[in-house]
Q: What sequence folds into this?
């Protein structure tokens, strides 16, 4: 427990130290930041006066987004400064009429008023600049959407018509001249820099590229696999780490190889300036192709079924793997061809023709994938068990949707909507790559989180043994962390998935929007941001930790030293726990900027709902507090509720748990124990009373009967000597004498067994004495109260 105290104290000190060390940013720095943001926004506004291509628009959007974030940050800091200045002005108090004010106070008041006015003006400037930046971003987004819509809606001559090919042939001579000029300029630059010696820099770059791409990539894979087999804990963690390592190696190796090759040409001064853009596009193409091949390969894991994450058999992985290589090659070719057309300045007809070729290649690849998938499903149609029917149905729906998209794209290509066809084809390919990456990352996040935070892991053992945290709590945190990571991955994937739609969904834009979100949003006058939420969570954890430490001291040290019984300790413990949790929650809400007045307003708004929908819960809660305070029923009491009788095992603020004789648990709402009749057999004391009633013939000697009964009672060990057993005659009825016999045992729980033993003995004795026993009619008993045996001599 001392370790828990030290941990909680350290967390509290960190929170308090962070708040104490947070220094206000100087006003001059904030003003400079705001001025720079305004300058950037004006520059973006002027740049939009001219027509810009898609790449330039992306850069301008990123600049406007960064300026908008800077203004939001500056406004937030200025508001903090304004609050400080206003607090100082409030501390000076109002000016008293007719009373001269001290010169120092007056000068300080004037200075603070001037500062407040300047800060207020700067805040208004910052808000205005933020609005302008938001408008510029919205304008760029609209422009990109319009260009995207125009691209997919533009119709040209069908590739099946002669008009399409006539336009291509008519533009071919000029396009060929442009290509020759592009090549000639590059060759001329190479010849100008050729010194006649061996270009060892270029050769070294080429050799290094080959070394990275082939033996280096294979060695890195094997090295990572060997390390995982020897050192990584758990099969799931090794499997996910191996997949991620394959993706990292498969993506970085082509990029590094391409960079080495291009850099070698640059060092040898054999890279023409006009070719630089094409080779840079080659680096991008190599990286994307490597990523595509690596991510699909990590999902399929052809030839390595034991390392495969996805539920795919070896035959399916073997047939789909060549298609993933073709997808990577087509993607790289598309990037290079688009860059080449841009650098060469290809004609509109040439661009349309290349787009048609790219669309046909993508459609052929998608069609091949669907055919392979259909053949695999047909082969396994009779082998599917009932457990895989839902998966097969979902796959069938996806396949049907892909066929419909493929047919729509083919139809668009045939009637001349080449832009639409290329978009659909590339969108399907992009969805495949992004979906594979998302599936792999989500599985890896789940495996890593649940393995690291398992109760048997190294970290789990440290948390359970050193910090006293339950093993189930450690595993629950791992599951929550896994869920949170997967939600973040899905959000990022959705932003990237929208990239082809021209909505500014690039990676930079996505993180820019996340950065804007990090600045916080205002909800009902309360600024909510990830930082604020994290601070609230930390304070809540610290508060609950303090409550837990206090409860450990209260239950383990203080309450055992008091004279309270178990029920009293339970009442004090429950009330203290609920009060502590409520205080921790209020502390956390206060750290979010939600004051007590807002909490009171919320409770008053909820009072109507509590009065109607939550009336029963509130009634049980109040009844539970009454039970804990008045204690008419305590833990360990033997009570009867209706026809059920049992021992009270637990009393909470909502319900009470009663263990019945058959060891089942009866859960009774507390309002039932307060508003209805409850028989508590142990409230006044722990004694239990045995009552036996019978009748004998009128001529039977009553003293003889009394002696037999007392002897039978005396033979039972559970019967107490004090109060002493007693035998009474209740009356005479229908020629019989009515007897009422009383005895006491130590506990009401012993009544049933002791009474049974006495009855067995009495039946045997009366049969031996030839005394005819009879039952006592219910109407034969007098209405008077049965006398207390403890006050009557036998």
A:
């Amino acid at each position: 427990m001392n370790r828990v105290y030290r941990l909680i104290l350290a967390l509290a000190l960190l929170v308090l130290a962070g708040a104490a060390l947070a220094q206000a940013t100087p006003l001059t720095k904030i003003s400079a930041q705001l001025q720079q943001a305004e300058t950037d926004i004006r520059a973006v506004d002027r740049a939009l006066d001219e027509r810009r291509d898609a790449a330039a628009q992306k850069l301008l959007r990123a600049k406007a987004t960064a300026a908008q974030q800077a203004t939001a940050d500056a406004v937030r800091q200025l508001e903090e400064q304004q609050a400080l200045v206003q607090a100082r002005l409030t501390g000076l108090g109002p000016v008293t009429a007719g009373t001269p004010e001290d010169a120092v106070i007056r000068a300080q008041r004037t200075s603070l008023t001037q500062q407040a006015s300047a800060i207020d003006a700067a805040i208004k400037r910052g808000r205005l600049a933020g609005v302008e930046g938001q408008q510029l971003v919205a304008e760029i987004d609209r422009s990109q959407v319009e260009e995207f819509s125009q691209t997919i809606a533009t119709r040209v001559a069908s590739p099946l018509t002669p008009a399409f090919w006539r336009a291509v042939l008519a533009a071919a001579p000029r396009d060929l001249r442009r290509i020759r000029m592009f090549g000639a300029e590059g060759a001329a630059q190479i010849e100008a820099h050729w010194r006649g010696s061996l270009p060892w820099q270029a050769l070294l770059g080429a050799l290094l590229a080959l070394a990275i791409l082939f033996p280096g990539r294979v060695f890195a894979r094997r090295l990572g696999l060997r390390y995982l087999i020897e050192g990584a804990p758990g099969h799931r963690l090794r499997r996910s780490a191996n997949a991620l390592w394959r993706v990292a190696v498969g993506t970085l190796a082509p990029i590094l190889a391409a960079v080495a090759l291009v850099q070698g040409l640059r060092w040898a001064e054999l890279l023409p300036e006009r070719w630089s853009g094409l080779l840079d596009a080659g680096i991008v193409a190599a990286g994307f192709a490597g990523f595509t091949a690596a991510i699909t390969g990590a999902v399929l894991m052809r030839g390595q079924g034991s390392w495969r994450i996805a539920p795919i058999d070896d035959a399916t992985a073997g047939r789909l793997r060549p298609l993933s290589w073709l997808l990577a090659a087509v993607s790289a070719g598309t990037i290079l061809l688009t860059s080449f057309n841009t650098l060469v300045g290809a004609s509109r007809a040439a661009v349309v023709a290349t787009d048609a070729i790219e669309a046909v290649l993508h459609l052929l690849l998608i069609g091949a994938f669907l055919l392979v998938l259909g053949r695999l499903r047909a082969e396994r149609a009779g082998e599917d068990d009932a457990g895989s029917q839902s998966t097969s149905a979902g796959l069938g729906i996806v396949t049907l949707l892909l066929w419909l998209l493929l047919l729509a794209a083919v139809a668009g290509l045939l009637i001349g909507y080449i832009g639409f066809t290329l978009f659909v084809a590339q969108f399907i390919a992009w969805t495949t790559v992004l979906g594979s990456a998302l599936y792999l990352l989500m599985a890896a996040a789940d495996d890593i989180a649940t393995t690291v935070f398992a109760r048997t892991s190294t970290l789990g053992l440290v948390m359970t043994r050193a910090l006293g945290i339950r093993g189930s709590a450690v595993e629950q945190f791992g599951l929550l962390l896994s869920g949170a990571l997967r939600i973040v991955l899905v959000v990022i994937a959705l932003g990237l998935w929208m990239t082809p739609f021209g909505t500014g969904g690039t990676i930079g834009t996505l993180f820019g929007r996340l950065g804007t979100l990090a600045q916080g949003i205002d909800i009902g006058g309360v600024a909510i941001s990830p930082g604020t939420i994290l601070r609230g969570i930390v304070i809540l954890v610290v508060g609950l930790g303090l409550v837990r430490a206090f409860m450990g001291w209260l239950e383990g040290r203080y309450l055992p030293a008091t004279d309270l019984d178990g029920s009293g300790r339970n009442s004090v413990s429950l009330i203290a726990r609920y009060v502590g949790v409520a205080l921790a929650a209020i502390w956390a809400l206060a750290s979010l900027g939600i004051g007590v007045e807002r909490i009171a307003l919320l409770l008053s708004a909820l009072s109507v709902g509590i009065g109607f929908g939550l009336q029963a819960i509130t009634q049980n809660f109040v009844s539970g507090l009454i039970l804990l305070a008045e204690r008419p029923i305590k833990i360990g009491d033997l009570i009867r509720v209706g026809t059920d009788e049992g021992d009270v095992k637990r009393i909470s603020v909502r319900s009470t748990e009663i263990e019945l004789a058959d060891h089942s648990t009866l859960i009774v709402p507390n309002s039932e124990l307060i508003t209805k009749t409850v028989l508590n057999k142990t409230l006044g004391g722990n004694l239990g009373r045995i009552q036996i009633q019978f009748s004998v013939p009128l001529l039977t000697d009553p003293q003889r009967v009394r002696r037999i009964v007392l002897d039978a009672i005396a033979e039972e060990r559970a019967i107490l000597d004090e109060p002493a057993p007693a035998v009474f005659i209740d009356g005479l009825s229908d020629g019989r004498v009515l007897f009422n016999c009383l005895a006491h045992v130590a506990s009401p729980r012993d009544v049933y067994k002791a009474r049974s033993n006495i009855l067995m003995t009495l039946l045997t004795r009366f049969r031996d004495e030839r005394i005819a026993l009879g039952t006592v009619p219910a109407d034969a008993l007098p209405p008077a109260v049965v006398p207390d045996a403890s006050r009557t001599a036998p």
Notes: The chain has a mean pLDDT of 79. The chain has five domains: 20-153, 169-383+394-452, 531-613, 629-680, 688-791. Residues 103-153 form the longest helix (51 residues).
